[in-house]
Amino acid sequence: MGGSMRFYTANEDEIVEGKATDVYFLRTEKILREKGLANVKVKMEFHSHNLPKGYEWAVFSGLEEVLRVLEGKPVNVWALPEGTVFKSQEPLMIIEGKYADIATLETPLLGILRHYSSISTAAARIKRIVRDKTVLFFGLRALHPVLQPMADRAAYIGGLDGVSGILSEKYLGLKPMGTMPHALIIVFGKHEEAWKAFDEVMPENVPRIALVDTFYDEREESLMAARLLKEKLYGVRLDTPSSRRGSMLEIAREVRWTLDIHGFKHVKIFISGGINEENIKVLKEVADGFGVGTSIAFPKSIDISADVVEVFRNGKWEFITKRGKLPGAKQLHVCPNHIDERKISLLSEEKEFTCSKCGSTLKPVMVKYIDQGKLVRKLPKLSDIRKYVLNQIFKLPEP
């Protein structure tokens, strides 16, 4: 017999203490300390050198967890506010401190920022396509359960209208949203009995959204649900597996037409199952909302990297970095009216830029969050970060 079973996940203390890292950073720290270089101060800059093909922008998220790692350590931290839209090669965060103190933190910090920003960006891209229609995150079944609150938070920051995770109410203050699984209907054996039971058991504040593709044609099941629940039916959800789907757009049009001609114009249509950027562009014509899972839970990766860009030597800061990267810690300036008007300068210099479109002064976005280990800026509420993201992505010009 083997040993006792467990979950193979790092705990919070291991992450904060720099133990969740790559071994070469641990070796680097040991070498620096033994060779008398433990006090060498650096400025390390986090940035995305290249965005995925077809991406012109991304959403910076995960900052709150990063600050949790860095708080109490002898460092200064500047960063873009969480939820800031950024472009390739723009600075995201700067850490100033002794390299020996921060070397082992590079791996967990990058992991947090890359994973968060990748999910938030995928969510924001879909929300920008559907605009005022509802999008819920249904991607938890594609992820290890230890990541559920993090993934829900990242998706919500990206602008989605709701999440399904039960734990997100505890950790994030978000009421979970969802409908019903096919299993409920199969266990009852009859559609009407399952829909009726859902209506009888669920509180009034839970929308009555019937899953309508278990046994019969979507059009027929939609009409069955509408005739059963009448005005109480808020919507129907189409979730046919892709192998049986055919044209989901034509199916949804058929459902909409049938509901309308029978007096059920109030019933909304929700579509889930394999939803991504491409098919949502087509389906938004007829759908009122979507449940999106894997394409957000497993998005294209936002490749964020970290590089030393300044070293303190002989009483002054020296601009230095590896080849292919721009030396010097940087500041990002963005026009408040035209988000595509952006400039980069050195963080250490007071520089002003004027928008070529409206004449406004570009606003410096990078701000200080930690001063010698102490958090010096109040962090925003989750709902405010989401609003900040939405305000930016709807100002972006079309590609």
Written account of the structure:
The protein has 399 residues and is of the alpha/beta class. Helices cover 34% and strands 21% of the residues. The protein folds into two domains: 201 residues, nicotinate phosphoribosyltransferase, CATH 3.20.140.10; 168 residues, Aldolase class I (TIM Barrel, Alpha-Beta Barrel). Strands 13-12-1-5-3-17-18 form a seven-stranded antiparallel sheet. Strand 8, helix 10 and strand 9 form a beta-alpha-beta unit. Helix 5 packs across helix 6 and helix 8 crosses helix 9. The longest helix is centred in the first third of the chain and has 25 residues. It is elongated and about 80 Å long. The N and C termini lie far apart (59 Å). The model has no long low-confidence stretch (mean pLDDT 94).
Sheet-strand content, in percent, reads: 15-25%
Q: Report how far apart the termini are.
A: 59 Å
Number of strands: 18
> Biggest sheet: strands side by side, in what order?
13-12-1-5-3-17-18
Question: Radius of gyration in whole Å, from Cα?
Answer: 25 Å
Secondary structure class reads alpha/beta
Shape: elongated
Specify the CATH homologous superfamily of the largest domain: nicotinate phosphoribosyltransferase
pLDDT < 50 runs, ≥5 residues: none
Query: Percent of residues in helical segments?
Result: 25-40%
**CATH class type of the largest domain:** Alpha Beta
Named CATH architecture of the largest domain = Alpha-Beta Barrel
Oligomer: single chain
Any idea how many domains? 2
The biggest sheet amounts to: 7 strands, antiparallel
The pLDDT mean sits at 94
Helix tally equals: 14
What name does CATH use for the topology of the largest domain? nicotinate phosphoribosyltransferase
